[in-house]
Each structure stands twice: as structure tokens, then as C-alpha cells.
Amino acid sequence: MTDTAQLNMLAPVPEERPTRPASSWYALLKPYIGSPFNAVVTFACLWLIYRLVAGAWGWLVTRAIVEGGPQTCKAAAGAGACWPFLAAKLRFMIFGFYPYDEHWRPALAVLLFLGAMIYSMVPRFWSRRLLWLWLAVVVTCGVLLYGGLFGLSVVNTTNWGGLPLSFMLSSVGLAFGFVLGVLLALARSSKLPAIQVIAVVFIEMVRGVPLVSILFMASVMLPLFMPDGVTIDKLLRAQVAIIIFAGAYIAETVRGGLQAVPKGQHEASASLGLGYWLSMRKIVLPQALKIVIPPLVNIFIGFFQDTTLVTIIGLLDFLDTVRSAMRDPVWQGIAVLEGYIFAALVYAVFSYGMGSYSRFIERRLKTDHSHGRH
Amino acid sequence: MATSDSSPVRLLYDVRVRAVLYQVVAVALVVGIGLYLFGTVSRKLAEQNIATGFDYLSRPAGFVISQSFISYDSGNTYGRAILVGLLNTVWVSVFAVALSTVLGLVVGIARLSRNPLLSTLALLYVEALRNVPLLLYLFLWYALIVAVFPPVREAWQVLPDVFLSNGGLIVPSLRWSPAHTGVLAAAVLGIVLAFVVAGFMRRHRVASGHARAAWPFVLAALFVPPLIGFLLFQPDLVVNWPEKGRFRITGGVQVTPEFTALLVGLGLSASAGIAEIVRAGILSVGRGQWEAARSVGLHDRQTMRLVVLPQALRVIIPPLTSSYLSTFKNSSLAIAIGYPDLVMVSNTTMNQTGQAIEGIAIFMLVYLSMSIAISMLMNWYNARVALVER
Predict the structure, then answer these.
(1) pLDDT at residue number A374
(2) What ipTM describes this predicted complex?
(3) How far, in whole angstroms, is CA A260 from its chain's centroid?
(4) Which residues from chain B sit within 8 angstroms of residue A31, using beta carbons?
(5) Which of A308, A315, A351 to mutate to test the interface with B (most CBs of B within 10 A)?
(6) Contacting residues of B for A352, CB less than 8 Å apart
């Protein structure tokens, strides 16, 4: 707390703006050069913005290599971005080792998935029908990716990779993790001590260790757990690890929602003669889950990003295919940053989209409750 | 009703009986699954001729670790190798937590600035870090270090004996001996003593109302113990100068690029979260507090330090704890860029011995106990700053 100058700027939280005539130059410029310190900050910011924009523009546009091959890029020695690398490797980065001629299948699956996701993000379409829609989408995506039906050739999971794999790991992980999480949250807030203890131990153990260790455990120990003759796919192992990890974190969020439901709701449903499951399903959970939608979306963003960790146990997710593309002998050591920047952009677009959605939902749910309390 | 209470079917409708029944079933299920898994695993391990137990910890490891704070070579045991890994994990986590706290505080306050340029830049910083996976940033920082800095043979000589290359930063070091450890312990003692003295002086001032300058005593408490330690242990100051050979630089101490990439990656990512925590904490202090502080004549800096931050801290500490915990756990991503942390050393051990279960059990147990320790420490601190209600 030594940088008192920083603290000074903060003092009046800018909620009430003094009314000023639109033409007053002083009022317009006051936030920027109101005090000597503020003026210094403004110029430092302007300088920083200039350096960032100029640097990015130079690297991405003016000095970039747009046409040519590895040799042209190598000659430029990293002075500018190497766009031919992205052009040549784009499909590999997105689809990994999926057979080249069948790329339309994962592409269609991803489009279907994204379409269903955007559709179900609109509050107007929230209904039971969505479950059936998702079931249909998941089955279709599975058939598209794996094949074996309707004359589609079979593509083994070892050849799956890239963006479809990242989407699959995170969405399936979150769907099952959500079910597991709700059950765990119910168990943890249960009145039965033994069930509570089991849930607490599970949740705290999973939350106390890093995802990497759970992935390791799944990839090493799950095969040992299986009865003889049953082998378990590498992809499935990672999926199980993600489900367990997501379940524990979702459980804690949902528990927060359960605690926020007033006790009177439990009592009212009990007095109507509803049993535990019926009262949970019809009365308590709908209210609890509604409260925790915004934090849940934030958890989803986190897990979408955390699926990148499967690359550590050797799965070819999007980040891994991007890295493989950069390690291609033809391009090695030439485009060292372009791939990462492309991948970062893809992740940022999805995460930012989800984050904006979370804020939108938060505002919407607030207006629903607006009478009186907020 | 009372007459048929003893019938077994009736009994099932008794809430208490059902509660017991559910719990028995749940426990039996968990124990049953546990026993089954244990049985399968031990049978399979026996079939595959994989040894079990922790005997391997006392066997020589036979691999080198690129960074260690205690003496270690490939002749040392697996147990010592894992200890080296654990120390590396703690080392990078401590620095990353410190970096993220400082950056997070600055950016969080900048987010609230009246200057739109500054607050927008701070927002950009937060969004850029939060929307891209940490692992990707780790790879990116590592690639940048390797791309920007020259190879070891053409290392830049930044200062007379400081070399900078994509092999890391190399600076002169002291040749360490037990005497140095003694002086270090005395210095730590001095820091603790300084805190104790400062606390005592503050309590004395509050109790008696006599404002007496505390700093001479605090400084004395800080510097006297290491001085005594220095005179007592007489450490010899032999400097290990780095020397540039044809292919590599020998001597000195090295800050590896893996460490730097991990530190920067962890620190920056966590700072974005902490910035939001700090911002929310400061905003949670009502406007009335600012106004009240101003009306009793405090100026802005005093208001922030004496009125707003102490209250904001109560809101800040709990989420800050979980941020520190996740930084500590995220340091396990070290394995992706080759920093020899606990997980990476354990992984090498597992590959060499084949005893994966023991290896995983060790590092999970370590993470679990450290997580519990950190949250207990932070809970203690939180209890200290929490609102004392009558």
C-alpha cells in the first residue's frame, strides 16, 4: 500500500457526473488532465497504446509475409507475421489427424453443436424440448464423428483432435459434471451425516488437488480399475477426469444456490405433502439453479479453457494440434508465435462470448426479481 | 397405529429408520466399490509384476534435475528428488503469488480510476488474461523467451558478470555453506522479531496514548540478529563467478527460462482475477464511508488507507485465498514446459520405477495437505481482519 498516488486517483467513485454544458472543453478533458498526476497517467497510457497498436500493426500487417512459403518466412526472420503458415496449416490445426477427406463431418458436427448452443442460450426457448434437442444433437454429432452408420466410414477416437475434441471434452464433461455436481451438492446439504461426510470428502479431495493430478490418475489408474478384458479409451479416461473435476466445482456453486433458497420454501413444500425428491425437483432446485446460472457460466468458461490440460496426457486437443502444426519439420522454428496467437484468438472469442452471455443473464435475472428487493 | 409399529413394512415408513437405512446403503456402496477397486488393482499389479510399496523412495534416482535448492545429483534417492521437486513447486508458487498480488492490486485500483484511458487499459488487461487458457500463455511466454533472447553461445552480457540468453539469466552467486544458512536463519528471526516489536509498540501506544517513535526499535530488531549471526558464524564470502565457455556458461546461479515463463504465466493470469477481487472489494465499501471520512477531515489517501481498505479487506480475503490456492495448484502445469516441479519429478520417477499409484498418491497427498494448510492460514488471517461484532 505504498503507491499512494494510485490510491488518490480513485477517491470519488465516479457515479454522479456533474452536469456540464456539452461545449465545455475543460469538463470534457478534466478526467484526462484534471491534475498533474492524471495528465502524466494519460500521456503514459497514450504512449503505451501507441506502442501496442504500432507494434501489432507492423507485425500483423505492414511487415507481415502474406504470400510465399516457409522459405519466404524464414528469410524475414520473424520481423512480421507469417500468414502462409496459417493458411497451410489451418485445417490441420482445427481438425487434427482426422482423415482429410472427411473433414466435413467434424465441421458439420461443430456447426450443429454451436447452433444448438446459441439456440439454447436464448431465454425465450428455455423449455423441456431443449433436452430432446440436445439428445438429438449429441447423437448426430457422435455418428458424424465416429461413423459406421449411413455409409460413413469409421474414424477411431485416436484420430480425433483439434477444435471438435476440445468442444466435446468440455461440453460432455460439463453436462455429466453438472448432474454429478447437483447430486453432490444435495448430498452435502443433506441432513444425513454419513452421506454428508462422503460428499464433503469427495468434493474437498478433488478441489484440493490440481486437475493435472486427476488427469494423471485417470490415465494411469482407470485401466487398472477395469475388470479383465475391458480396455478403456484414452479419450474416455480424460473425459472421466474432467467430469469428476467439474462435478466437484459445480457442486460447491450449486450448494451456494441451495443455501440461498429460504427455509420457508422447504417447509411449504413439506406441508404440501411433497417428499424429499419431489420437493427438491419441483420447488428447491429450480430456484437454486436460477440463482447460480451466472457463476455456473463462469465455471463453464474456466473448464472450456482447462480442457487444454489434456495435452499433458497426450490427447490432441486444439492447443495440441496447433503446437503439432508448429513442430511440422517444414515450418519448425519459422512460425513460433503465429500459431499461439491464432489459438489465443479462438479461445478468447468463445470465452468472451460466454462471459458476455453470463453478464446478460445476470442482468436479466435481476430484472425478474426487481419488484421491491433490488 | 401403535400396535402395528413393529411390523417390518411399517418400519420402512418411519423417517428415522429410513435415514439410517439410506446411510447404511451409502456407506456400504462406497466401501464395496473401494474394496472391489483395491482388489482389482492389487491383482492386476501382481499379474504385471509391478512392485508395490514405498521402498523405491530410498533407491538412487539416476536422473538430473535442472534446478534445485538443496544439494542434489543423480546419485541421490528418489525421495530426495521428490523433495527437490516439492521445493521447486513452493518456490515458483511463492513468487507467483507475490507477483499476482502486486499486479492485481495495481490493476484493480486502475480499473476504478476516473481516467477513462487508464480504466479501459486495465479492463483490456483483465479480459486478455481471463479469456485465454493459462497453458496457452505458458507456451507463448516460453516461445517468446526462446525467440527473443539469443542462444547461449551469443549470450548478452548485461552487466560485467551477468549473462542473458535463451538459456536463462545467469548471475554470480555465493558459495553456500552451513554458516550462510545460520546467517539466513538469524535474518528470518530478525524479521519475525521486528513484527513482534512493531506489534508491541502499537499496542503500547494505543493503551497508553503516548506516541513514541517505534522505528528505531523495529530497525534494531530487524538488523541486530543477522549482524550477530554474521559475527558468530563468520561465513566466508566466496563468489561463484559465471564464466563463459565455448558452448555453455559455467558457475553462478541460473534463473531458467522455464522458471521465468511459469512465474510470468502464473503471476499474470492470477493477477487478472485478483484485480477483479480488489475492485469488487473496494466497490463494496459504501459511498457513505468516503463521505463520512471526508467530513471528519481525512484526505483521500488517509480515507483509502484507514477507512476503505480495512473494510474492503474483509470482502477481499476469502476469494483471495482461493486465488492463491489455485495459483499453487496451477503451478503443476510446469510439466508442460519442463520446469522440474513436484509433478514433473514424480512423473519421471513413475516412468522409471513403474510404480505409478504410489507416485500419484504422494503428489496428491502433498497438494491436498498444502491446500488445507494454506486455507487454514488464510482463514486465521481472515478471522483477524473480520468484523468484530458485539
Answers:
(1) 38
(2) 0.82
(3) 26
(4) 114-116
(5) A308
(6) 127, 131
pLDDT band at B386, cuts 50/70/90? low
How far are the Cα atoms of A16, B273, B287, B288, B388 from residue B385, in angstroms, in the given order?
A: 31, 21, 21, 21, 8
Residue B374 to residue B367: CA distance in whole angstroms: 10
**A-B contacts (CB, under 8 Å):** 184
Distance CA B67, CA A267 (A): 60
Under an 8 A CB cutoff, do A337 and B140 touch? yes
Using the beta-carbon criterion (under 8 Å), do A340 and B121 form an inter-chain contact? no
Q: Which residues contact A358 (CB under 8 A, 6 or more apart)?
A: A294, A297, A298, A301
- Work out the minimum CA distance from A108 to partner chain B, whole angstroms: 25
For A130-167, the pLDDT digits (tens) are 788 888 888 887 777 777 777 677 777 777 778 888 88
B360 touches chain A (CB under 8 A): yes
One-letter-per-residue 3-state SS of B203-229? HHHHHHCCCCCCHHHHHHHHHHHHHHH
Q: What is the pLDDT of residue B96?
A: 92
Got the DSSP string for B103-121? HHHHHHHHHT-S-HHHHHH
Kindly state the cell numbers that stand for A80.
Answer: 512480421
Q: Which residues of chain A have pLDDT under 50?
A: 1-10, 12, 14, 369-374
Q: Please, what's the largest Cα pairwise distance for chain A?
A: 82
Question: Which of helix, strand or coil describes residue B23?
Answer: helix
Extract the C-alpha cell encoding B40: 482389482
CB atoms within 10 A of CB A136: 12
Helix or strand or coil: residue B316? helix
User: How is residue A167 written as a grid cell?
Assistant: 468442444
Compare CB distances from A347 to B106, B133, B360 and report the shortest one's residue. Answer: B133
Residue A318 confidence (pLDDT):
85
Residues 6+ apart with CB under 8 A from B292: B307
Which of A31, A221, A312 lies nearest to residue B114, judging by beta carbons? Answer: A31
Strand partners, A317: A162
Q: Chain B 92-111, CB below 8 Å of chain A: which residues?
A: 106, 109-110
Distance separating alpha carbons of residues B322 and B263, to the nearest angstrom: 18
